[in-house]
């Protein structure tokens, strides 16, 4: 491997996923993993198998499907974690066990209640155990950003001697400033005697907004792996954003002198997918993937752009896979046209279900007239989340709000193939009345702990996307609904969440029978 290649280690499905309000389903995680594989990430960390049976199952499913990226799983420096990581990963074409233990005095004393000597011993034992399973073992010293440099060097040297092939120096709490973090990496590169036997990796959090700068400074000081997530999602303020470091390396290649193997044209697509499935909107001014990232507003800027794009554009939108909108899909368009538009946006048929998408497209085209590419994208990834196997399906919904009177709603659904309806009077508004009617039908009290409405597209005919998080029996479930009418998208979101509850009950029943 050439020394100017930067290994991109994506942790969207581990560090990113652990920050979500409601966890992703196995199907959603696999969908993201396949998109990351197409993006060309070298390593994808996809979970923490010992943490739950759901996490174990998703790591195993992804390990089974991914062929062109290395699949990694996290484990504490504890035997049962390492064994679980191996059990989940062993079906993969290529895999890595990632084991970690905290190294800062604060974590060692307050959290682990051990001495630093014990911690080094545990790190060595963990790496050795993982090496019995694979020759690709990564070791991380958690909170390295606040660990004294002598201790970092000591634990890194011991981990490499024990067999670690990648050593990761995380700035777990996003505390470091670029010079400071660059200097830590410089010291590691120069003071650890066996450092040439391992790749030095960086994992930065964004608490002070330094994650991208810190990662790039680390690269300038010799790090050769960057850990990052799509859209920068992750614990608290998130992790280094993959799209930012990759595009910085591409755009400033002459200055940095390194490269990645990422297929940058996939960036926009995977960013949209992660945002939708994770219920994590992207701020419009977010670097690279925000909706304004390539928009030019002021007259002076627009004038400059018309004369020469380089005046205000340092990279072209096409590099990240952005295509110009086409406005010509209507109810008269056939399946081939819909498929063609999806293909132009870079989606292959395995990414979505054409029959379902076409059906949803026709319904929308009847209401809206013209259907835009962003509508198609939203339909493909939101409506598709409602599966044929769902027990509960929305049939009819009407709601009424007369000023000064309580709202009312009538809802008819199919529950296990049977038509059932309910009317609710006295809601705080049409959405509340609709939710009461749905809960009456299913005989379930769920608590709506989060409700978010976003317009997809522009104008009065825009689709409204509702994302909700519901709490039921101490667990959280995400529901998403899309429609031109807000009450309908709200109802669809609740029905989506209730179907997720039903699915989890089915899994629990199956497990209980085993
Ligand atoms: O932030 C961190 O330190 C981590 C480790 C587990 C690598 O996520
Ligand atoms: Zn982290």
Automatic annotation (TrEMBL):
Chain sites annotated for binding Mn(2+): 15, 203, 205, 239
Reaction(s) this enzyme catalyzes, per UniProt: 3-methyl-2-oxobutanoate + acetyl-CoA + H2O = (2S)-2-isopropylmalate + CoA + H(+)
PROSITE patterns xref list: AIPM_HOMOCIT_SYNTH_1 (PS00815), AIPM_HOMOCIT_SYNTH_2 (PS00816), PYR_CT (PS50991)
Alphabetized SMART domains for the sequence: LeuA_dimer (SM00917)
Matches recorded under HAMAP family: LeuA_type1
Family assignment from sequence similarity: Belongs to the alpha-IPM synthase/homocitrate synthase family. LeuA type 1 subfamily.
Name listed for the protein in its UniProt record: 2-isopropylmalate synthase
Organism: Mannheimia cairinae
Higher taxonomy: Bacteria, Pseudomonadati, Pseudomonadota, Gammaproteobacteria, Pasteurellales
Gene coding for it: leuA
């Amino acid at each position: 491997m050439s020394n100017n290649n930067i290994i991109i280690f994506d942790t969207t499905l581990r560090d990113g996923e652990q920050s979500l309000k409601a966890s992703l389903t196995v199907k959603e995680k696999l969908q993201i993993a396949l998109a990351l594989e197409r993006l060309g990430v070298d390593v994808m960390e996809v979970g923490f198998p010992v943490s739950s049976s759901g996490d174990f199952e998703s790591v195993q499913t992804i390990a089974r499907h991914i062929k062109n990226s290395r699949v990694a799983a996290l484990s504490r420096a504890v035997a049962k974690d390492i064994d679980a990581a191996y059990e989940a990963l062993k079906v993969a074409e290529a895999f890595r066990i990632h084991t970690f233990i905290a190294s800062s005095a604060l974590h060692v004393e307050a959290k682990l209640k051990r001495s630093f000597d014990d911690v080094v011993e545990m790190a060595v034992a963990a790496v050795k155990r993982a090496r019995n399973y694979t020759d690709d073992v990564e070791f991380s010293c958690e909170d390295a950003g606040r660990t004294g440099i002598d201790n970092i060097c000591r634990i890194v040297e011991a981990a490499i001697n024990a067999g670690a092939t990648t050593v990761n120096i995380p700035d777990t709490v996003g505390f470091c400033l670029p010079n400071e973090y660059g200097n830590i990496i410089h010291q590691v590169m120069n003071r650890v005697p066996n450092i040439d036997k391992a790749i030095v990796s960086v994992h930065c959090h964004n608490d002070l907004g330094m994650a991208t700068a810190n990662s790039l400074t680390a690269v300038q000081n010799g790090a050769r792996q960057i850990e990052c997530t799509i859209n920068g999602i992750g614990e608290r303020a998130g992790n280094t954003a993959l799209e930012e470091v990759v595009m910085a390396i591409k755009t400033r290649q002459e200055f940095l002198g390194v490269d990645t193997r990422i297929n940058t044209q996939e960036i926009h697509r995977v960013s949209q997918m992660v945002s939708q499935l994770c219920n994590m909107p992207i701020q419009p001014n977010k670097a690279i993937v925000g909706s304004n990232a390539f928009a030019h507003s002021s007259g002076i800027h627009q004038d400059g752009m018309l004369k020469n794009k380089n005046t205000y554009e340092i990279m072209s939108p096409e590099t990240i896979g952005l295509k110009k909108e086409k406005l010509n899909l209507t109810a008269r368009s056939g399946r081939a046209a819909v498929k063609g538009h999806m293909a132009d946006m870079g989606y292959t048929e395995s990414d979505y279900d054409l029959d379902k998408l076409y059906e949803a497209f026709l319904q929308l085209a009847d209401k809206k007239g013209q259907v835009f590419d962003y509508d198609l994208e939203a339909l493909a990834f939101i409506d598709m989340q409602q599966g044929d196997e769902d027990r509960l399906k929305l049939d009819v919904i009407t709601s009424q709000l007369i000023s000064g009177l309580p709202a009312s709603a009538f809802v008819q659904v199919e529950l296990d193939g049977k038509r059932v309806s309910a009317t609710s009077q006295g809601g705080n508004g049409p959405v509340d009345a609709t939710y009461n009617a749905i809960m009456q039908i299913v005989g379930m009290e769920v608590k709506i702990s989060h409700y978010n409405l976003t317009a997809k597209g522009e104008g009065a005919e825009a689709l409204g996307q509702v994302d909700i998080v519901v709490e039921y029996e101490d667990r959280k479930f995400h529901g998403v609904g899309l429609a031109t009418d807000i009450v309908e998208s709200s109802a669809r979101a609740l029905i989506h969440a209730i179907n997720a509850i039903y699915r989890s009950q089915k899994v629990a029943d199956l497990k209980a029978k085993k």
